[in-house]
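Technical note accompanying the year-one report. For the benefit of new consortium partners, we illustrate the data format agreed upon in the data management plan: each record pairs a sequence with a C-alpha cell string. No post-processing was applied to the example shown here.
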Amino acid sequence: MATAVQSLRARLSFSAGELTGALGDSVTVLPIVVALGATTAVSLPHVLFLFGVFQVVWGVAYGLPLSVEPMKALAGLAIAGALTAGELAAAGLLAGVVLLAMGALGALDRVESVVGRPVVRGVQFAVALLLLETGISLGEANVALAALGVGVAAAAVLARRGQASALVVLAVGAGLAVAETGVPSPAVPALTAFPSGAPTLSVAVVEGAVAQLAMTVGNAAVATAVLCADLFDRDVSPDDLSTSMGAMTLAAVPLGGLPMCHGSGGLAGKYAFGARTGGANLILGVLYAAVALVAGGGLVMAFPTALLGVLLAVVAVQLGRAAADTDDALLTAAVGVAGLLVNVGVAFVAGALAYRYLR
C-alpha cells in the first residue's frame, strides 16, 4: 500500500511548483483561445471546458505535466480568416484521424524524415506571419490602446517576464471587458454536437490539415517525446503521443472543442514554471473549467479589438522565435513567406519537395 501511495504521489503532486507550472501552459493557450472566440464562431465556454477535461485526462494517464494546446497552424488560419469555424472542425477531424492512424502504424519517424525540420519551422513561421498581419490590422482600430498594450508587453519583457507578456496583455483586456459588461452569471456549456456549426469540407481544409500535421509530427510528437526523456527521464514514444492527440481531437471537436495537441513548448513552459508531475494538469484543468463557466455572454465580444491585435502580435513573435531554430534559414524563410503570400498548404508541399531535392 505504501509503495502504491508513493507511486501515486510521484505521478500526481499538488505543490506550489505544480500550481505555478500549471500557469506555464496557459501562456500561449489562453491568448489563442480568446482570439478564436473573439474572431470566429467558436464557442469559448465549450473550448475551455474541454481543455480542462483533457488536461485532467492526460495528467492522470501519463503522470507528467504534458501540455494540451490548440493545434496552432489550424488556429492561426482560423483567426486570420483562412478557415471558417466549420472548416476548422473538419480540418481537426481529418488531422485527428491521420494522427490516430500514424500512431497505430508507428509511422512518426518516417514522416518526420520526409518532411524535414526546416519545413516544419517554415510552417510555424508562416503562421506567425499570418497572426502578425491580423494583429496589426486589429490594432489599427484603436492605435492609442494598441500602443498601451505594446507598452504593457514591453514592461513584462523588461521585468524578465517575457514568457508571460501575452498573459499580462490578456489580463488588461479582460479587465476592460469585465468593466464594460460585468461578470456573466455562471453557466454550464450545453452538451450538443458541433455547437459552433457542422464541419464543412473544402480544399482549404485539406491544406490546413496537411500544414498542421507537419507541425504536429515534429513539434508535438517527436520533440515532446525527447523532452519527456530529457526533463523527466520517462520513455514516452512519439507514436503514443500521436495516438493520444488523435483520440483527443476526435473526441473534442464534435463536442465544440478545438483540435488539440501535446506541444513541446507547453511542456517546457510547465517545467520552467515548476511543474514536475501530472498534478499541474489537474490544477489547470479545474481552472479552465471554472473560467469556462463565466466565458459566455458578451464578455468575449467586449474584449478590446486593439488589445486583441497586440495579443496576436505577441504570440506571433513567440512562434517566430521558435521557427528560428532551424537547420536551413533560407528554406524556412521561403516556406514562411510563401505561406503568407499564397497559402500554408501550398507552401508546405513546395517546401517538402525542395527539402527532399536539396537533401
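Partners are asked to follow this layout when depositing records. The mean pLDDT is 83.
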